Amino acid sequence: MKTYAYILVKLLILSFCIHAEAANLTIDKVAPAFEIKTFSGASITSASSKGRILVINFWATWCAPCQNEMPELEKFYRQYHDQGVDVIAISLDDKSDLGAVKNAMKSFSFPFAMTDDTDMRRFGRIWRVPVTFVIDRNGVLRHNGWEGEPVVNAAILQKIVTPLLAPKTMEPVANH
């Protein structure tokens, strides 16, 4: 009995820590670690996505705003993918609805995953959809989907992402 109580206390502390971390998502700070296994079998992690800008969108087939947002994500992805922008759609649908998810995604060229195949817990409990996060080439959170309007479109993404596309220029060091 003592062992079960100990395990329960550890789990409660762990869940509090994860929730506290998610509540502290901060723009311009390093994004939490994540791991996504796409439907095609590719693995996307916080480490493997360095050097690319990543737009992570949580959605569901039963979500009308999500359905409206997906063509905007596709348009943005096609326009900026060659410049280092990746889009990944993570479906909150149940695994038993995989057929509906695949059917919904057949018109889009960016990869998708099911929430069961991801480790995104440090971004918080996904309690609404759509929700979108943008992570820059250095792994820094540039758009926190929990803040502001939940729906994104091409114009919003351009405002967030296009400044991240410009190469950083070094300021000349003055000779003294």
How would you describe what is shown here?
Helices cover 34% and strands 19% of the residues. It is of the alpha/beta class and 176 residues long. It has a single domain (2-165), classed as Glutaredoxin, CATH 3.40.30. The strands form 2 sheets. It has a 5-stranded mixed β-sheet with strand order 5-4-3-7-8, covered by helices on one side. Strand 4, helix 3 and strand 5 (112-114) form a beta-alpha-beta unit. The longest helix has 22 residues, at 2-23. It is globular and about 40 Å long. The N and C termini lie far apart (71 Å).
Précis, in short:
With 176 residues, the protein is an alpha/beta fold. It contains four helices and eight strands, in the order H-E-E-E-H-E-H-E-E-E-E-H.
